[in-house]
Fold these 2 entries.
Entry 1:
Amino acid sequence: MTENRMVFRGTQELEIESPLIIAPPKRLSPPPPTFVDDRPPVLLFEQVSKWYGPVIGVNQVTLELRSGITGLVGANGAGKSTLLRLATGQLKPQMGRVSVHGVDAWDWQAKRHVGYCPDVDVFYEEMSGRRFVLTMARLCGYDRREANRRTEEALEQVGMRDRADRKVRGYSKGMRQRIKLAQAILHDPDLIVLDEPLSGIDPVGRQEMLELFMKLASQNKCLLISSHELEELEKLTEHVAIMSRGRIAAVGTLQTIREMLNDHPTTIRIDLEQPRELGRLLIDSPDVVGLEMPSDRTLIVKAKNPKQFFRTFAQLVMEEDFAIERLEPLDDSTHAILGYLLGGSGKT
Amino acid sequence: MESLVELRNLTRQFGTFEALRGIDLKLPPGRIGLLGPNGAGKSTLLKILMGLLAPSSGEGTVFGIPLVPGADGEGNWQLRRLMGFMPEADALIPGMRGVDYVSLAGELYGMPRRDAQRRAHEVLSYLELEDARYRRLEEYSTGMKQRLKLAQALVHDPPALLLDEPTSGLDPAGRDAMLRLLLELGTDHGKSVIISTHLLADVEAVCERVVILYGGQVRGFGTVRELCASRQDRYRLQIQGDPSAFREELRLEGVEILSENDRGEMRVVVPAKWITRAFFALAENHGVVIRSLIRDDETLEELFFRTIEKK
Amino acid sequence: MSTDPLKQRITMLRYRPWRGELRGPWSGVLAIARVSLGQMFRRKLFWGLFGFSALIFLFYFFGQYLGVFMQSQLTGETGTVRLGSGVGAVTVRPENMIQALTKTLKMNGSADTFANFIWFEGYILIIVLTLAGSVLVGNDFSHGSLPFYLSKPISRWHYMLGKCLAIGVFVNLMTTVPALLLFLQYGMVDEWSYYWDSFHLVVGILGYGLILTVSLSIILLAFATWLRKTVPMIMVWVSVFVLGRIVAKLIVDGLKFSPSWRLFDLWNDLYLMGASCLGIPLETMRPGPQPPFWQAWLVIGGLCAFCLLYLRRRIQAVEVVS
């Protein structure tokens, strides 16, 4: 796992949208001084807002990335694609500033440090994969020899070296994604922005892509991945930025975000032979705010203050000698957290 | 009918390339997931089930209608009367309104025009597209388009639904809603649901049985519970606190730690006659809190990789 | 199955099963034709072009009427007539006018009338068909609507038939129907025995219309399937007809080669086929030497067969599942 290099700035930026989150945002304990870097961060959004006519794409977004893999999640239409396009300098914000290594993202100097792997497939279908990547390399401004070298290196990294001579028209989804990734890493950028890189790929291919991302992250690159596939994102990284309605609803590690939602009770599933016995005892605990028995082997507990609850629970298990078959908090996943933050079924 | 689909020694070639070989399958009605990496023959199998392709050799029946092998031709379009297909691609007709689109689908299935129109309204309101039904298809969002595609597959109330990546492009909330819908159609309304997807989590949520295809052959078929190995002696733990002392203690008790990460997640193998209470006791003694304890049965993902790896 | 009876009851309020009779694929064919027509009729450009074709019809309509009227009014009196008054007055010789209308423009209810009328309508028809091709078929390919159609219990031939029916409607709306109206009009204006004497012309008109419908819809479908987008469709479609005409003219009239070279001109070939239906003799045709009828039939027939084979290959149901 790569180190957490995300710096959290100030409390005023963290405005969590959902009414479920009542507690005012807490200031995180600042990271130990050794982690603070003097160089400007790889990607910095400063109070960025972007409109399309009357429609707002992103609204006062502040975000700072230094290294490692960051996931960007949120409902459709929340502004993820807009944010990614702002990061790659394709869009200019109406308010605020987007900078890469301190340089305005709009500037061509900044784009040198950014690689973009878009969600749409726009290839020249009659070209072979190799030719396509080579063309992109030439467009980057490299001379023939350098472009060739970089192309081969990039294809090697994505594992397409032997298959790159077929025409793109015949490629499977997985192969297309790899070619897109290859053209994104050609110029050895510090920041790689990926929009839905795993969609449509079979489980085998997905595994390979995940390994590839981790390899890139270990080379000290910063990856910003927007994806709906939360299960896969969780395998990659702990650090997520959750977007909702054009704003960043929460940024940080899943654990931290979960803790910030402390006032919201955790739902915990317990499987055992005699749930009623346990239920009777748990009801006495002040941490427990709800109990449900969907079957005669399962108990669902709603508890505030999870840390305290688990301690209480452990003690009960030992005192009364319960044979616990399963203990599972049901809302530790990004999925559940998203559900809380975005408030109920966001019908798209 | 007992079996939805029965295939015996089915093959399909494209020139010299063998897309499917020796497929023997008997699918009962119900919710079935079709899994397999790219190039495994999934789409070929789907096309044969839908009657878009004829098998090269072998025999079978789909909904009781026999499949006739024939190297070249299109399969039998009759097969498509009894199923609704939800394609992965957009497959929309821009310029049409939602209700007209679904009603056209109904007519193409063979419904009389009035019935098709009435039914289109009904199905669209079931799928919560009531407000948008008079709007043109270009104005629909991704989630709405997916539901629209489901609507045009449901309009003639088929006994079976065939879905290709039903949750593609949907955000987590939309995906949940779609999966719940499919589960409901399968359990409450008695429809057979065949889902072809790369997302194993979707299959876990909806399907009772899975078919795993690889290299043109059926590598695994059965209920998820049957196929996934239950490993009585393995557990997954998540702890909070400093794990070092706890870890040591576990080892002393004969517990083998398979893997561990910095989030406090561990996978362990316990010796015989172990009781879970011991975990809690040890945790208590070493200042660690157990947040999660689950038996480490094989997940669908592990099953999938195990299946395609064996020769 | 959900065991809770209350839930079952509530659920049934939301999703109701449908138990009805499914008809065969032919209802689907009609549905496709109907929807395609709707898509075209919604376009303003189509109505504009239709207006032009109506202009040609009106021209012939009044021309016929005027011809017959003048002939009936003149009773041997030759000389000039003054039309209008004041400065804008014009002196005409009625005989010249009648001559122009009946002999030159052939607006006399004869086989030539209808053949020429449909020939002129052809100019507009070609443009309308270009539009139809890209809207009806090209859009299906470029927007990926084909899987929608082919995942239903119809075969690709049903799909094509539905589209051809729609195209046929346009073709007939602009050729056969107005031609029949002209026929009716002439009979009413001239004499009732006209209907009896010239009934074979009705058959000829219908035959010409049928030839146009079948051949144009097949060729159009093939082009639209090949080219898909509007602009290339217009370019290729128009050039095939216009360039074909120019090339044929150059070779036959300019270089004085054998008249069989005129077969390049597709519209002319169709005209020849129609003429053979209407019973117009080959020698009386206007532009120079013409190839014999059977050659025109051969060329168009061969082209249609080729297009059908192409369509068979191109509209593959296998594209439904990617």
Note: The first strand of chain A starts at residue 43 and ends at 52.
Entry 2:
Amino acid sequence: MVPEVGQFALALALTLALVQGILPIVGAARGNTVWMSVARPAAQGQFVFVAIAFGCLTYAFVNNDFSVAYVATNSNSALPLQYRIAGVWGGHEGSLLLWTLMLGVWTMAVTVFSRHLPQDMVARVVGVMGLVSVGFLAFMLFTSNPFDRLLPAAPDGRDLNPLLQDPGMVLHPPMLYLGYVGFSVAFAFAIAALLAGRLDAAWARWSRPWTTVAWMFLTLGIALGSGWAYYELGWGGWWFWDPVENASFMPWLMGTALIHSLAVTEKRGSFRSWTVLLAIFAFAFSLLGTFLVRSGVLTSVHAFATDPRRGIFILAFLTIVIGGSLVLYAWRTSRIGLGGSFDLVSRESLLLTNNVFLVVATGSVMLGTLYPLVLDALGLGKLSVGPPYFESVFVPLMAPALFLMGVGPLARWKKASLPELAVRLRWAFAVSLVTALLLPFTLGHWSALVSFGLLLALWIVASSVVNLLERIKNAATGASAWARLRSTPRAYYGMLLAHIGVAVFVVGVTLVKGYETEKDVRMEQGDTTEVGGYTFRLAGVAEVPGPNYVATRATMEVTRNGKSVTTLHPEKRFYNVQQMPMTEAAIDPGFTRDLYVSLGDELNATTWLVRIYHKPFVDWIWGGCLVMALGGLFAATDRRYRIAARRQREEEYAAAARGPQPSPVR
Amino acid sequence: MNSIVAKVFALMLMLFAGSAAFGKEAAPAAEDPALEQRMAALTSELRCLVCQNQTIADSNAGLAVDLKNEVREKMKQGMSDREIIDFMVTRYGDFVLYRPPFKATTLFLWLGPLLLLAAGLLTLLFRLKRGRGAAETGLSEDEHARAAKLLAAGTETEKQ
Amino acid sequence: MTAETLPKTRLYLLPLGIFFALVVLLGVGLTLDPREVPSPLIGKPAPHFELPQLHDPAKTFSEQDMRGKVWLLNVWASWCVSCRAEHPVLLELAKSNAVSIYGLNYKDQRKDGVAWLQSLGNPYQISAFDLNGRVGIDYGVYGVPETYVIDKRGVIRYKQIGPVTSEILKEKILPLVNELNRG
């Protein structure tokens, strides 16, 4: 009964999405207010029905309804509750429903936070998002129905893949999808502007917070995925340049370029057509990612059970949406106008240089990811492109961009001078250089690569400090430094934080690559070994049953200079249903290092293979991403976007415009 | 005589028990750690052909283990990294390498990013230099046309 | 002035053009199998091996024994499920005498391999016993079953990855064998 309700809800949602997608856009073109006003209620109704459908599927999972085929393939009665819920998005059909739900959440948000926008703009934005929803709902109903029945019902389910039975599974996909799908808002704004034939600084100001929030969620989603791989897969890797990982990284790079380009367009009204193109591309890469994961075109550890027939549907959808957008772009952009001009050296030009680097980086990642396919399609043989390629290409490409991160925020709008910038930054550079050259000696051996990485990170931090200090010193009035800091817009702090987050990330990557150590040893009970200055002693190994697995659990005592540091419990689990062995590494996280112990094979009744890692500063990788996301949050919640604050300001302006009022004569 | 034997036996017992409590320094898993380091570096560039995108270093699949043993054997025989890579490529093709070889078919792969960057930076430079002369009005073509019309109409009204 | 500095519409068609090429590429990609690894040994001499025979360990089998004949080398194992699917096709082929089939028992236990052939039938003139899979690696074997067509001069002319079906036999293997026999 419940699955049928869910399916019916999806069908209703599709109908509403069609209404939401067609009427408001046609209405906006014709100036028909009634049709335009359909946008909000249709969108909100669609969201309600998608939420109902999602609730029905969750219900089926939680109550172990194995008459639903999707539940039978992704769940099991012994599966703990939180993973039964996470199992809702553990497979292709359910993850599509999650995608659609997230789209509904964003659409809902747009309908709520858009009171200040002109009606035709809202109509078009919501309309475009409705059309995207139509695509996904149709995809589900016609090819990937999560509510398909399995008759007769299975006695029990095939269990969720043990790799996914983890807190990471609860957080990573929803966060990631919020990010991916969030770029549809920027996309919708871009299409709305093209449809209206009107693209001004106001459009950029409206788009910016939406893009920043989507970018923030995507940053968190990718960081979660990376952290999860790190502790789950058992060999301490955190990024493999796997096609699906790249599929999430490309929209992120584009989104970063878009945020910076929107800044130029908002402040100076310049390069609007480029910003629109970026907005289209960012979402295009989100859709491309959806295609790559589900079509079977590329091999990946993350790919869902792939089906070329589904691939055809997504490819057709991708062609229509992006192809249509690009046609609209080519047709309408000439009407939009160029915008203000600026000098060869200026903040605008530096931001655009940042764009060039980010877009080229995205292009390179795409080139590497798709190249094997290109050669195969042309009949030129089969090739693999893996981390060695991406690392050789991506890192040198990003280095200049990281350097410019220090220069850009200090450059003046419209016209800046290189010699002047050099003077302002000379101390920052000197301090960064000296510290970067000396620091490696304190951490171990000196290495040019480590020094270079540290130089870039320190440079970003030092120039941010210079930026902040200048702001305090250049107080227009005699206001105190503290007052000056308080009156600085939050978005400014957001920028500083995000940039510092990048620096933290770079430090983490550089130091872990430069100084991590590992040891592969044979251990019997009572044996000790030393890694990174810590002593590890295998106290014992025991068999421990879990809810749906049996684990061999080792107890590893860690000491340093005789003092106890921690006790770690690496496990080797054997899951009952899928008969899959899994290594659960034990990690002792720390601000300056991680201790990572992985239990290997049992060599004989008393001896075990153990792998122990000492990873300095590895948590700075994800810490940096968190700081970046925090910066995004600050930027998006800047006062100028907050609605209550806006109303207050509008009232203030209105009062000021009225002029001083004569006091009433008594 | 018996008491001496008993004492010796007791002593041995204590030593045995004592060593079990103290444990020993764990032996390295491999006989030759330097070789293992070389192994780790090389096997992380070779693809596991039966896996869904993993190196043979990270995989425990049957073929991956076989290939790792093969690589270790060849290293012990004194083959260089280059020779071992050639050995793999002869049997499995370029597909087995995660670092694509630099040949005619991969020219665009390896040089593409650099070319893209050069093209991007040059385009930007070109547009910036040209854009310097552009009007600062920020009006679109349409708006310019409208403005022109209005101004023309205004001048006519004035003339009247 | 503004109109002059704007690029023509043609330039704005560039992203569309690139996108279109991408779509075509992805569409073609849907018809391909990214996990199939073609053999670099086609057109090269079959790698040398000398292995004990499965049924008679005292005797050996080598590819050199087959010089002057066109033959099929089929890689199989008792633990391989797909091999069962192709086995009837091989038995038919053996009965028809169109070409001799020789087996490479890959990473198997001798008694399991013998028992498997006993119960399902033996299409192989001789099966070579490759216990540790070394010969398999030399031949670029990565998944069983795989079948090689080798000509009179000992050169590999074709590799079938996956089970041999009657269609593949009819369309690819038998025509090739006939051609090689004539030459």
Note: The beta strands of chain B are 27-28.
